[in-house]
Amino acid sequence: MAEDRTSSPTDAIIRLFAETPIRAEWFTNEFVAAAPPSRIQSIIEGLVSDFGMLVDVQLDGRVGTIRLEDAIVPVEISLDGTGRIGGLLFQPPQPTGTDAISISEAILDAVTGNVAVMAAEQGSDGLWQLRVAHNADEPMAVGSAFKLAVLQAYEDAIASGALNRADVVSLRAEDRSLPSGVLQVMQPGVPITLETLAGLMIQQSDNTATDALIRILGRANIEAMSPRNQPFLTTGEFFRLIASDGDAARSRFMSGNADERRDVLADIAKTTLPRAERILPRATWAEAEWYFTAAELCELLSSLRNAPALSGLPDPLVAIDGWDNVGFKGGSEFGVLNLSAIGTTPCGKQVCAIISANANEALPEERIALLFGAFFSSLAHPSR
Q1: Structure confidence by residue, pLDDT tens digits, 279-300
Q2: What are the respective helix, strand and coil percentages of the chain, to the nearest 5?
């Protein structure tokens, strides 16, 4: 039987790749409570399946790289005093032997259900040239990535002079939604600038900030740029529809025309916001959601590339050395995952990458996220 302890972080990583099954005894109790061995096993198996066998491990203290046959994976690991793993973080793989097309095939293989994958680069004429396209024009449920459309309506209002970034508004009781975010704990009447709302909406995916902006901008202005999504849901309405006691309202919403759906929203506006425990892990995305094509999300990202809310510090998933103007937005719920990014490669190419996945079961989000990071990074290299 293998020893439960290792003499070094390097040995601990090698064992993760060399021995199966991964055992709880290799980790601290706190680590296992947050990430069970089966989850780590799934990540390791995904890395090997997508990028090949382990070749080498190079660490300087807690941080370093794992070399696989077709990628280099930045990693951070920490051991406790007994040699058990107390912290482990894999960053997105940096492809060395695979291109965007090969990685997209791994993405398609990883998802059970419907998936859209798109990668494009902007030519000298300003037009987007596709490098990878699978269902790029198919409307998909995208979760919180819909907030890009709200940001676009906000930026249009700023450009027209209808609103100013420094305008101060007050939160209202009807704005309150469920997490993610921080504003849901604030009292109605709290003053906040519009730009803070926009930043929280994108950087923290704050649902209360989003609903406040939808109210201020006017639902009709967002629907004008996204006619497929009528009526354009607030997150509070969405949570009411998908809650455990929302089946009847959601059924009416799904089957109704735009006017009938507005009647449903007027009815549920009279109900209280559900508690988080009433949002069950089940697939409801085909009945109530926000639907965008990968191509539409790429166009939104392109239009918003200079928006302050999008151009802050990039998400670690797409923070790549040497890249500029990186913007990211994603979204997820049970059976729904979207990852969308835009950036400028070291050679000055503007590139965009989108993944949308819809399934009637839980999606392997960690594996897809690692693949997406590699997919985006691979766009720095010319297509083959």
Answers
A1: 999 999 999 999 999 999 999 9
A2: 40, 20, 40
